[in-house]
At1g61320/AtMIF1 LRR domain-containing protein (Urochloa decumbens), 478 residues
Amino acid sequence: MIKLYILDIWCLIHSLMPLRDSARSACVSGTFLRSWRCRPILTFNEETLGLKKKEGQKSDIAKAFASRVDCILKNHLGTCVKILEIVILDYYKVNACHLNSWLKSAIRPGIEEVTILLPAKQIPEYIFPCSMFVDGCGNSIRYLHLSYCTLRPTVEFDHLRSLTKLHLFEVLITGDELGCLISSSFSLEELELRCCWELFCLKIPFWLERFSCLRVDECNKLQVIESTAPNLSTVEFFGEPVQLMFGESSQVKNLMLEYSFEPNAVNYAITKLPSIAPHLETLILYSTCERVNTPIVADKFLHLKHLDIYIGDDDDEPVAFVYDYLSLVAFFDASPALESFTLCVDPDDMKHDSVLGDTSSIRQIPRHSHDRLKKVQVNGFFSAKSMFELICHIIETATSLESLMLDCIYGEEMGDGTARCSASKFGKCRRRSKRMVLEAHKALSVINKYIVGRIPSAVKLSVGKPCSRCHAIDVDLL
């Protein structure tokens, strides 16, 4: 009994030691070796194996990596492995047979996490062997992360019943094959797909009742995302526009949407999303550019509380369209429960008419009271007339407004108001174009001349000024 207790102590100690040190200690005695064989975490990369990359020694490192992994797995029972992580770099030149032998040694019943990160050149040569999951080896896996390989599960695949998280990065797999992989994963909660270029249609079935989070990133052939999973609540999408189908009982509450090189994401969101995701509470939009103003719509985001909009322009062509920021009021009118609004704009990308020197023709639109809006933040506030009109509208109609933050420098952390670089861990502000710095000073002038005096006493105004050191410039403002 005492011996068993001591062995448990050694197992605990070894589980906390770095892999390299733990393996070395197993050479000291039989007791240490038995405890080493119970080590539950095996992470194979250059750092854990004590390999340091030196110029001209890539072949030596590759041989040492393979040799050490072979030795460790040979002396490890494998049945006690809970977490396996293998990171293979391009110059290791590990062939499929060698890798499969490692997987066969380590993936046994009881394993819970498997991460296999391969070099880009492996795709599509390496076909991950789904047979590794048979005979109960896959049914205990809770987390599976694969990269740069091909995955071909068949209709009969039924070996990942405990899987809660599946992450695939640059994996060749079709929509039907992905369906085969997850159809019996009744515990699945999270699916992340990045650069999976064989996906045309992604379907999440209704019987995955625990499924709650979907992330899709640059699967550029994807055309349709359809989910009938009853508890899907968070969706993050980046890529070419796709058709979103969440079903009549959609419970999606958090949505992040970013189109790559496709304009008008903001326009799409307000015209289409109220019917697609009627229960949204948080909406984050990234728009590379807006070529149409935001329209007034009849449909409502009845539950939307937090709205973040990021607008830039990645087009190399000259920007001819002047976006009307005041049109964003349509979101406020469509979102009666809205509590916070963040707008981020890169002034370098945007063409605009400055409000400086001309406030005589400021537009006023019908004033609907936004009585729940408490926090407004504009990152990249600049002197555009329509942006000034938007802020004035918010000040006049947001009766519950508590804080308004206007930052004149896009994408820079606010400092103490005098030296922004004091807030940077690098000790200085990031380099900005002369145009952006000049615009920041103009924006500050707009705030001081036209906005400060309009702020109600109950509202806290925070202003992100240009850095007194990094953004100093001689300007002649009207």
Notes: The radius of gyration is 28 Å. Confidence is low (pLDDT under 50) at residues 1-5.
